[in-house]
């Protein structure tokens, strides 16, 4: 397995099982806007979300570059990709859950859409456990060496 393959596998491992992300888009004026969103499905390197057509995230994502940021303990992931929107009612039914019902009604509602992010590249950082991070930062401050930790940037 090449270093690239290993980094890609590690990135995938860090993405799978993540339920919540900060989803960042750019407005028409170029201002970056982030909002928390719930991952409905990870299918290969496509992440799926349910949102509303009337929500600003939809037009700011369709056919445009977006960013997804995950944080879990001392581990961080950033994914960049292109958004696309689907109105497929059958697929919405398959992805639907109680959380969607609570704020979005029914999958048949035409305002509810599937927002896909097709990932082009990703990065991850591993800060280790909290004690090790503090020790590493202190060591870096004293020695001038960068703190240790795992980091990789991956083209998908």
Account of the protein in words:
It comes from Nocardioides daphniae. It is built from five helices and eight strands, in the order H-E-E-E-E-H-E-E-H-H-E-H-E. The protein is of the alpha+beta class and 156 residues long. It has a single domain (3-155), classed as Roll (Pnp Oxidase, Chain A), CATH 2.30.110.10. Strands 1, 2, 3, 4, 5, 6, 7 and 8 form an eight-stranded antiparallel sheet that branches. The longest helix is centred in the C-terminal third of the chain and has 14 residues, at 130-143. The chain is elongated and about 60 Å long. The two termini are 15 Å apart.
Question: Quick gist of this model?
Answer:
InterPro entries: Split_barrel_FMN-bd (IPR012349), Stress-Dev_Protein (IPR052917), YdaG_split_barrel_FMN-bd (IPR038725). With 156 residues, the chain is of the alpha+beta class. It is 29% helix and 42% strand.
Based on Cα principal axes, name the global outline: elongated
> What characterizes the major β-sheet?
8 strands, antiparallel
- Number of domains as seen in the coordinates: 1
Q: What's the CATH topology label?
A: Pnp Oxidase, Chain A
Roughly how many Å is the radius of gyration?
A: 18 Å
Low-confidence stretches: none
Protein name: General stress protein
Organism: Nocardioides daphniae
Domain General stress protein FMN-binding split barrel: 7-145
């Amino acid at each position: 397995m090449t270093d690239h393959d290993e980094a890609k596998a590690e990135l995938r491992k860090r993405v799978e099982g993540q339920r919540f992300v900060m989803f960042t888009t750019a407005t028409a004026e170029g201002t970056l806007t982030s909002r928390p969103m719930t991952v409905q499905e990870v299918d290969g390197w496509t992440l799926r979300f349910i949102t509303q057509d009337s929500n600003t995230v939809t037009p700011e994502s369709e056919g445009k570059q977006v960013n997804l940021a995950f944080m879990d303990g001392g581990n961080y992931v950033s994914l960049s990709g292109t958004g696309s929107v689907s109105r497929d009612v059958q697929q919405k039914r398959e992805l639907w859950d109680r959380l969607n019902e609570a704020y979005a009604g029914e999958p048949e509602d035409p305002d509810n859409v599937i927002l896909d992010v097709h990932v082009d590249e990703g990065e991850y950082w591993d800060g280790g456990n909290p004690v090790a991070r503090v020790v590493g930062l202190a060591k870096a401050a004293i020695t001038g060496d960068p703190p240790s930790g795992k980091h990789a940037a991956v083209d998908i």
